[in-house]
Amino acid sequence: MIELENITKVYRMGKVEVPALRGISLSIAKGEMVAIIGASGSGKSTLLNIIGCLDRPTSGGYLFDGADVSQLNDNRLAGMRNKKFGFVFQEYNLLSRATALSNVELPLIYGGGGNRNKRAMEALEKVGLGARAKHKPTELSGGEQQRVAIARALVNNPALILADEPTGNLDSKTSAEIMSIFRQLNQEGITVVVVTHEADIASQSQRIIRLHDGEIISQ
Predict the structure, then answer these.
(1) Is residue 113's pLDDT more than 70?
(2) What is the pTM of this model?
(3) Are strands 191-196 and 33-37 parallel, antiparallel or unpaired?
(4) Cα–Cα dist 218/209, whole Å
């Protein structure tokens, strides 16, 4: 599904160049559950953003399902992000004044999908939150808010879920529940890539990719 070849990413701050990724080559097969682990500043979130087409590499090649991502224009990339990928972030990124159901509907609104209410409700039920559909984020626990974020990521039936520190704000029990959801989704055929700095979270994946200073040191 994912083929990265000698990916680099350099950020320029005035006249100073800051390398974030230094020649990353990596393959992820369809149906895998992979963890990318590393300390803060290791480049793991930068790598996830490139995989998710949220950022472009400075150099190197990226094929997604055989398509050369570098040849896609912004509209094609936006369509891929909406239809192919589901994103889950540490901070949940929910609209505070909208209900859980409305938050889950957002990708369908942006992407023009039909049956929005039905599909969003099905996604909430899949993560065990059907009964909380009318609640706003301030009425939900951190774990419940992350479940809403996962439901939002699922609503377009993505081939790939990209999760950036999805348990970073959660206690150990709730973290285990969230990871159980990811494992279940993976068993249903969705490819899952989780970025984390926690070894116990990474150990729940099929494969662990370790980054240090923008390079893969083991996988």
Answers:
(1) no
(2) 0.92
(3) parallel
(4) 6
